[in-house]
Specification:
Elements: H1 2-31, H2 53-57, H3 66-69, E1 86-88, E2 93-109, E3 112-126, H4 129-139, E4 148-159, E5 165-167, E6 170-175, E7 180-181, E8 187-189, E9 203-211, E10 222-227, E11 230-232, E12 237-239, E13 244-248
Antiparallel strand pairs: 1-2, 2-3, 3-4, 4-9, 5-11, 6-7, 6-10, 8-9, 10-13, 11-12
């Protein structure tokens, strides 16, 4: 009888320990939020400034592999100029020059005339987390989690009027599949435009970088560009955004 009582007590103790462990385990699970995944952010706008670009730029975590250093297509400094050449950033982004097209497409909006002269396509392959984060920050999007494609649009702005004018550059780029990118989701304007005032007769050559939808990465040949509204030297808006300029390349 004593043995039977002992077995019952022992079994009860094991059961209590198991239940207690289950409660503690579940309490910990409930109090700890699930780990975020990249897909959780695909429909949300990232908050620029959560990680400073300077922090990533100063973190030289990537060492260029010997195979790349010995490649005839690797450009150690400067820009790739031939199709197939590539550069690798200090954070580990490999940018391959995939295509380049000289074009001449012009549109006027108020007293500013825009002439697009070149569209360059890059296939990017970030090798590190820092390279991914740099791309997200630059293009203000979380839709980069691996290889991605960008276009660099080179253009000239001319002030044909008599007053000083300012503009942010490109406001949107639309693709043939209906996708539209803006500074909120995949477009990065030349930062120097923010400090630029165009006097009468002035010209400025500048650029914008835009993310290409993955479905069009291999076939993109046409975009429609809308240029931003125009302000005077007192930052008062004097002209709305331009009509769309179709650029084939």
């Amino acid at each position: 009888m004593n043995k039977r009582i002992w077995y019952i007590l022992a079994a009860s103790l094991v059961l209590l320990v198991g239940v207690g462990g289950f409660i503690l385990t579940n309490a910990h699970t409930i109090s700890t939020p699930p780990k975020e995944t990249l897909s959780d952010h695909r429909t949300t706008k990232p908050i620029q400034g959560s990680t400073k670009k300077s922090q990533l730029e100063n973190k030289k975590a990537y060492s260029v592999p010997k195979a790349d250093k010995s490649s005839a297509n690797y450009v150690a400094s400067g820009h790739a100029s031939k199709i197939g050449e590539y550069t690798i950033s200090s954070q580990g982004n490999k940018a391959v020059l995939a295509a380049k097209s000289n074009v001449t497409q012009t549109i006027s909006n108020g007293d500013l005339t825009y002439t697009v002269s070149k569209v360059t396509k890059y296939n990017n392959d970030p090798k590190t987390d820092e390279a991914v984060e740099m791309a997200r920050l630059a293009l203000n999007t979380r839709d980069i989690d691996g290889a991605y494609t960008t276009l660099t649009i080179k253009y000239t702005i001319e002030n044909t009027g008599s007053k000083n004018l300012q503009t942010d550059g490109v406001s949107t780029v639309a693709y043939t599949d209906g996708s539209i990118v803006s500074p909120l989701n995949g477009l990065d304007n030349d930062a120097s435009l923010a400090q630029t005032t165009l006097a009468a007769g002035d010209k400025k050559t500048t650029f914008a970088v835009v993310l290409v939808p993955k479905a069009l990465a291999a076939t993109v040949k046409s975009i429609q560009i809308e240029f931003a509204s125009i302000a005077n030297s007192s930052h008062q808006k004097v002209q709305k955004a331009s009509d769309g300029l179709t650029v084939n390349f």
